[in-house]
Amino acid sequence: MDLADRIELRRFVGREHLLWLWFETELFEGNLRTSKHGSFAMWVEGRMVLSMGRERTTIRGSLPGAHREAKEAVRRGKLPEAVGFRLDRGELPASFVLKGDSLALSGLSLPEPPKEETPAIEVLADAPRPKRRGKAKDDADAADADYDAFYERMRRTRDVEEVLEALYADFLALRLAAPWRASVWPAIERWIDGQDVDASAYRAIRSRATKR
After folding, report:
1. DSSP helix, strand, coil percent of the chain (3-state; round to 5)
2. CA nearest to 90, candidates 126, 40, 16
3. Could you read off the pLDDT of 87-109 as tens digits, one per residue?
4. Cα–Cα distance, 195 to 189 (Å, whole number)
5. Which of 118, 139, 144, 159 has the fewest C-beta atoms under 10 angstroms from its C-beta?
6. Closest C-alpha to 17, from 77, 85, 100
């Protein structure tokens, strides 16, 4: 079996992961946590694509997962192919689309951090004016600013990736544990059907499986 065949056989795992994330964001009302990152807010936002073979359902809106068509598509056998999420860990929020087949991020939106305000300084009328900086100095300062902005964006991107990696590790621990078929998947099925799910009981199962 070549690599492409192995990837195809395991493609459903990433889509189940998206379904599980969608389930948890609704069950816990957007309040998720990992052992490394503590509590944070995360919810489905913007766009959701569900598919099975060539059949595809695309839903857009502020809360696409809450649309009746979303869970109806799952009941017809479709799984999430791509889901938009909003992640807020108390700093600046991040918006992105997570793809099920590759678990790749796309459309990552990181708002610009607020600029530090320069305190107003009273200048005396008879004070000597500072010399104007040369063009080389200005270019160097601009380059430094671009450099800092680039690495700040890379740092924040890595923060998002680390949260998603931790959630995926929890999903795999749960997916490979005995409670998945006995308790977790039945809970997801009840949620899909619009039935109540005991969040406290599910959290206890999840904590034991992920050892936290």
Report:
1. 50, 20, 30
2. 40
3. 998 767 999 999 999 999 999 99
4. 9
5. 118
6. 100
